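Open question from group meeting: does this chain pack into something compact, or does most of it stay loose? Before anyone orders reagents, we agreed to write out a predicted structure and look at it together. Recording both the input and the output here so the notebook holds the full record.
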Amino acid sequence: MGVTLSQQKNIVQERVIFKMLVLSRQRDESIVIGDDIVITVVDVRGDKVRLGIDAPSNIPVHRQEVYEAIQRESIRAAQTRQSDNNSGSERHYGGFPYQMHREMEIYQ
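Structure tokens returned:
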């Protein structure tokens, strides 16, 4: 049994959410994003395109592979800080963190 026209429309509508805007530009032509970002095609050689990006300094601009490396390092650093906070930085008494030890004394 095939897909009905109604089901096809639903599938297309669901896919629209995930589509990206694709624009064609030639050398020295630009794309403007918002009021502050301009992306210009600087050069095209074979399968490589050089882009110039003019954006405010408070907006980070990275190649995707650099951005992903920054994200991985940020996660690793946060995990390391979390691990450091959970071991050795608290005072321990009798195997219990200090605060828990104090609470145990109060209720004994």
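Observations to bring back to the group:
The chain has three helices and five strands.
The beta strands are 30-33, 37-45, 48-54, 92-93, 96-97.
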